[in-house]
Amino acid sequence: MTTDSELRIIKDEIVQSVKDRGYLEGWTGKELLGRQIAKMQEELAELADLVLVGPSQLWSDIRLAGETARMAFDDMDKAHWNQITGVVVKGHSGAIKKEISDMQVVMVIIEHAVYKCCGSEFNAFYGALGKAEDDVERGKRQ
After folding, report:
1. Is 40 or 30 the better-scoring residue by pLDDT?
2. What pTM was estimated for this model as a whole?
């Protein structure tokens, strides 16, 4: 079992790898939060492409949201990100943390579903660490 301190180290190493890749530089916490929400939607659409059978309305909606999110994530205009992340995050930090926790529950159940359908164990935190470290060489998406 992973201890809290081991989990903190893994998270810190993931953050450092993303920082080394150049994706954290120059963004405020608020801007970074907005961009990562867009990135999460993009990743959800990529997962949906692997799992959902199209055409269906759900698949189409998720795919469109993913395409929109990818364009938003790639938008480096700080004025744009300041405009769309206008909510004062500090006033909503409890609700934001709750939603992040809800997302983590979903991720754990997705891992469990992969185990049930594919028969292979997977730990997303270790997977994320490997992915983040491997991505450093690629640098930023152009």
Report:
1. 40
2. 0.83
